[in-house]
From TrEMBL, chains A, B:
Residues 4-59 form the HTH lacI-type domain. Keywords: DNA-binding, Repressor, Transcription, Transcription regulation. PROSITE patterns: HTH_LACI_1 (PS00356), HTH_LACI_2 (PS50932). The keyword NAD does not apply. The lineage of its organism: Bacteria, Bacillati, Bacillota, Bacilli, Bacillales. InterPro entries: HTH_LacI, LacI/GalR-like_sensor, Lambda_DNA-bd_dom_sf, Peripla_BP_I. The keyword Phosphoprotein does not apply. It comes from Halobacillus karajensis. This is Glucose-resistance amylase regulator. Coiled coil: none annotated. GO terms for molecular function: DNA-binding transcription factor activity; transcription cis-regulatory region binding. It holds the Pfam family LacI.
Length: 334, 334
DNA sequence: CTGAAAGCGCTTACAG
DNA sequence: CTGAAAGCGCTTACAG
């Protein structure tokens, strides 16, 4: 079964390819009624389906954007991606999702691959370690929007949570509930990943504001695999924290696993707040108090910003960056 | 900044476009050493990146496959998709994921869209309600593989769990633990979705084999939103079940939510087993006994099968269908 | 060992 | 109101 092309339709309808193309693109201001009909019949008879690849080549636009996430395992990421897809879909854009797995090499591979595929723009949760590439995109004024993180000194807009506030909200809730010895645990800080750094900053600020001393020992960061042992040490300090703030969903899960395994009671032995409103928060026992990110709004904002840039209604510049407000979801874990 | 094309490279290197193309495609059996070098230098100097859209048009292959999932909310789906991506990535294929949201209209839209984008093949978690379209793909021998579900009478290979066995494993575990009054709850059966139907079948078989009567009242199905009220009724029967099998992860979550809200103790008041090994199973309290699907293996098998078909090493036929074995993960909820 | 030419399936000024 | 022609950026027999 040969693929039917616009030429076949033209022949069948006894008009030129141009006319068929006009018809298909709904540019029939002056097209004869019978012509339209003949083309429509030919299209149906032959079961013609346009070849988008050919169109893209000619139009130099694919109506597709790429999304490169740093790590698909974060619940936040999944949610944001869904929102991006929804927005794009509504504007008739398609999305290609790639997972860089926190690896700059993979990120580079995907950026190059997606650009080779001629996607019209990119939303990146940047690893931060491909500055030359980011710069190249800027130089060629290729549409890019960063999500969740920013890259210092790079004039690319970022969609971000108000991270300091998220941590402050959590710490203030601990304080209100009478906790004074509050720890914080986060995934690795070595890459200076924006949300992590800012959340730790917010944690410190909130404590300082209440005149509570900040113990270095109370601030833990590391890869998820090492968190269990870190936690073990933390809780065996002479004066261990009575409450702990999990910097994101993966950290929260490690804490809950540890608690379960060691018979640490939440919140009696250890109160917990997690940043990111995990799926099971509401029906876990105890229900987990979290700080929720407006994932849908953030995804939507990122997609809309990118599409605006693609459609030249906006400039790729840090000016366009947006911060979103976190919300404290009070439940039973503190 | 103009996009640099193969013509620019050719001019720069003072060779023809053909030669550059050969070089880029590593067809340089007989290419002069200096020629290669000149081309390589030109490529670097100009920062040339090939345009995959143009290549795809010519080669009539995009090295991209489409994945249309019925419902991205299932944990199973996410896992399988990741495995598919991994396999494709390793074979230098790209993937475009679309979520049909259990809606045949969306499914149709995506099938047509992806074919228009000239993807080389499709992995579909079929809604089952687009038989004409499925048939059309078969007729034009377009590569398709079904995942998770099969469509009756359609000669397309499916990658599936041994669903009956999954339910049997769960029921047998209930029985071993001394339970006799065992209910089953699943998402809607009206579309005869393979796994749901087969799991209910397995549940019945296992009971029958042990000579336990099957109560219609004990088998509940419906949309996730209505499950709470259904559950309420079920547990207020004169002789309510003491254990319940959740047909999938979404159902399990509804059950746990209900239990939490109504103070139903698991497993004391109600024992629970879920099909699908949810993320929180191991650290929930109580840890949830589940029947796990080999998600990674299944995704891998589906992707490999499709890629084989695309590369003409295998035929699109139901013969190629594969069933996978479930595993009982014994924990504390029964 | 390398190049000229045709062609993949579209779109788009432009001419009439 | 419709068509001929050029061109998007590649690849691929084929010729030499």
């Amino acid at each position: 079964m040969k693929n039917v092309t616009i030429a076949d339709v033209a022949k069948q309808a006894e008009v030129s390819k141009s006319t068929v193309s006009q018809y298909l693109n709904k540019r029939y201001d002056y097209m004869g009624e019978k012509t339209k009909q003949r083309i429509q019949e030919a299209v149906e008879k032959l079961g013609y389906q346009p070849n988008i690849v050919a169109r893209s080549l000619k139009q130099k636009a694919t109506k597709t954007i790429g999304v490169i996430v740093a790590n698909i395992l974060h619940n936040f990421t999944t949610k944001v991606v869904r929102a991006i897809e929804d927005v794009c879909h509504a504007s008739d854009f398609h999305t290609i999702i790639c997972n860089a797995d926190d690896d700059p090499v993979k990120e580079k591979y995907y950026i190059e691959m997606l650009r080779a595929k001629q996607v019209d723009g990119l939303i990146i949760f940047p690893t931060g370690d491909n500055r030359d590439l980011y710069q190249k995109m800027l130089d060629s004024s290729y549409p890019v929007v960063f999500m969740d993180r920013e890259v210092e000194g790079m004039d690319i807009p970022s969609i971000m949570l108000h991270n300091e506030k998220a941590a402050e909200l959590a710490v203030e809730h601990f304080l209100e509930k009478g906790y004074r010895r509050i720890g914080m645990m986060t995934t690795s800080l070595i890459n200076h990943t924006t949300p992590r750094v800012e959340r730790v900053e917010g944690y410190k600020k909130a404590l300082r504001r209440s005149g509570i001393p900040i113990y270095k020992d109370y601030i833990i960061s590391g890869e998820p695999q090492s968190l269990q042992t870190e936690l073990e040490e933390l809780l065996h300090l002479e004066r261990p924290p009575e409450g702990i703030l999990a910097g994101n969903d993966l950290v929260l899960i490690e804490i809950l696993k540890y608690a379960k395994q060691k018979g640490v009671r939440v919140p009696e032995d250890l109160a917990v707040i997690g940043i990111d409103d995990v799926s099971f928060a509401s029906f876990y026992t105890p229900a987990i108090t979290t700080v929720a990110q407006p994932t849908f709004k953030m995804g939507k904002a990122g997609a809309e910003l990118l599409l605006n840039i693609v459609q030249k209604q906006e400039e790729t510049t840090k000016q366009a960056s947006l911060r979103f407000e976190p919300t404290l979801m009070i439940r039973d874990s503190v």
